[in-house]
Amino acid sequence: MDMINKFYSSAVHTVSTLSGVLPGNNVTREYEVLEQVCTAGVGLMWKVYNGYKKSTKQEVSVFVFEKKLLERWSKDDRETMLDTLRRGVQQLTKIRHPHVLTVQHPLEESRDSLAFATEPVFASLSNVVGDAVRSEKKLYDVEIRHGLLQLFDGLQFLHNDAKIVHRNISAETIVINKNRSWKLFGFDFCIANQPATDGTPHWPCREYTTSMHVLAQPSLEYTAPELALNSVNTPDSDLFSLGVLIFTIYAGKPLKMFGSDYSGFRRYCNELNQRKYPAMNAVPNELTESLKALLHPSASLRPKLHELKQIVYFQDVGVKTLSYLDSLYQWDNLQKSKFYKGLPQIIPTLPHRVNLHSILPYLVKEFVNSPMIPFVLPNVLLIAEMSSQREYCDHILPHLKPIFKLTDPIQILLIFMQKMDLLLKLTPAEDVKQSVLPLLYRSLECDMPQIQELCLAVLPTFSTLIDYNAMKNSVLPRIKKLCLQSSNVSVKVNCLISIGKLLENLDKWLVLDEILPFLQQIQSREPAIIMGIIGIYKIAMTNTKLGITKDVMAHKCVPFLVPLSVENGLTIAQFNTIIALIKEMLGRVEQEQREKLQQLSTIQRDNKPKDASEILANEMESSTISPSSASNGNKNNDDMFSGFTVGQSQGAPVAAASTLAPMKNREQLK
């Protein structure tokens, strides 16, 4: 939580600072200014912000100098410093070279600030040198070596072509751009050639003065001794500054700190005349002698830049690779193709950050050159394989999306099919639907069997990302068409295998309406194709979600499968498989039909109307006396005729007589 609060307060501070400085500056009319990324220039007074052009969304960096930093300066120093900064940016705007910082929008001035826009910047060298630098910003050795070569090229251009002495080479005035290329910046104190009357080049020398603010003059830590001792200024003076810069990169600080102590600087220059150098333990051994030569007090004895390029220190494979990429635009396609073929052996040996930020930008630039894409694409995908998903989405996927749409050269589809597992792992689901699926459709429709088979093999692996309509209207029709029209048996078999793997993601009616009728349209009777058909039937029959109805099995499946079982060329194992499937289908038809008939019989018996004879029989059965009631009747009869039984009691005749008495009376009445 503390970290979040700290980040929030930092963001609020940045926004509030910009809102107070930039509103009156015309740079904000065309550019949106975002977060600060680094500082650069004399005294690191230029604040560098990420940004983009509002009209085109082009990424830029915006350099901002806040005039309030000079509030405590004297008026003369303040005006001198502002003039120096203006002059430096104006000179920078005029120079165009791959290793000089590119200005996108010229200097704009307001009451509170100076501002201009450049190519995207990562940091100044001062921000990434020293023990206090965070680990993710520390420079790799191959980056340092390659960066120094880039500075050599930039200085050669300044000295030989532009005839300019920089006079301000330092860690603060070397800028590293987004692609990790080192660029010259800080032309505040540069001096152009003013030829003498005889035509010899001449660069006027401006002596250091203690009456002027220290930041309004070149840094004494990087100044060549001849300026103080002999008042001489030549391109070789920049080489001394370059030597101090190299020492600073490895040691974390210059040879010696002077600040505004000009007399101390002069004493140190005299020490250099005696070749007294500080300890160089931090500097690589293969660079030590060349570094001492650059720091030689005599300007004429310092090595030339083209000589420095040849020392062992720069003969590293990684450095040479990065240097080749810098000059790639000068090569023809044949030279480029040879280089790209060997690049996969070098990429794994380089740090991932170098691959992602230094090599990848050059590779994706080649995507505009169609014949080179098959040579470049494997290297791009190799870097993607080493990247996280976020790095892939930020740096690689935007460049791949246009390539997904290409079908020529045909090798592009082949390379994508071979690396489809990687693409599916790193590409977000929505981008898979929009970019990768159309690529697969085109692969199915191409004429190259190898690509078709790779596509058929990979399709089932991400079938869950394909919606029902796309599966029904786009994927399955293409597979069916390919299977029916292709003359390649291997392609046909792979079509059937692919459909078999897709079945579990289909519904029952799609299988019954689209897949099973399609199988009967296949005319080929090669054993491999027959077994592919059998496999689909078996999956459809055994899968509980699908299931083939008994009517379909009886009317369509069995009549189709029986002739397949007698095809020539089948092995005994294949024949047994087909017969087993037919028997299984017949068994299921028999079982389901018997169960159905039994159920119908029961229902019919329960619902059948009764005839007259059956009704009469039921009535008679219900009126029949039960055995218990018959025994009771017999007992009553016994009681009734008990008076006529021999040996009966004396009371019985009386009862009988009394019973018959009324009858006698009636007879008497007659």
Low-confidence stretches: 1-17, 625-670
CATH class of the domain at 127-314: Mainly Alpha
Net shape: elongated
CATH H-level superfamily of the domain at 127-314: Transferase(Phosphotransferase) domain 1
Main sheet attributes: strand count, strand direction, barrel closure: 5 strands, antiparallel
Q: What Rg, in angstroms, do the CA atoms define?
A: 49 Å
Number of β-strand runs = 10
Name the features.
single chain, 670 residues, alpha+beta, Phosphorylase Kinase, domain 1, Transferase(Phosphotransferase), domain 1, five-stranded antiparallel sheet, three-stranded antiparallel sheet, 27 helices, elongated, disordered C terminus, ATP binding
Short description:
Belongs to the protein kinase superfamily. The chain contains 27 helices and ten strands.
Describe this structure in words.
The protein is α+β, with helices and mostly antiparallel strands. Among the domains are: about 1-75 and about 90-120, Phosphorylase Kinase, domain 1, CATH 3.30.200; about 125-315, Transferase(Phosphotransferase), domain 1 (Orthogonal Bundle), CATH 1.10.510.10. It has 27 helices and 10 strands. A 5-stranded antiparallel sheet has the order 1-2-3-5-4, sandwiched between helices. β1 and β2 form a beta hairpin. The N and C termini lie far apart (about 135 Å).
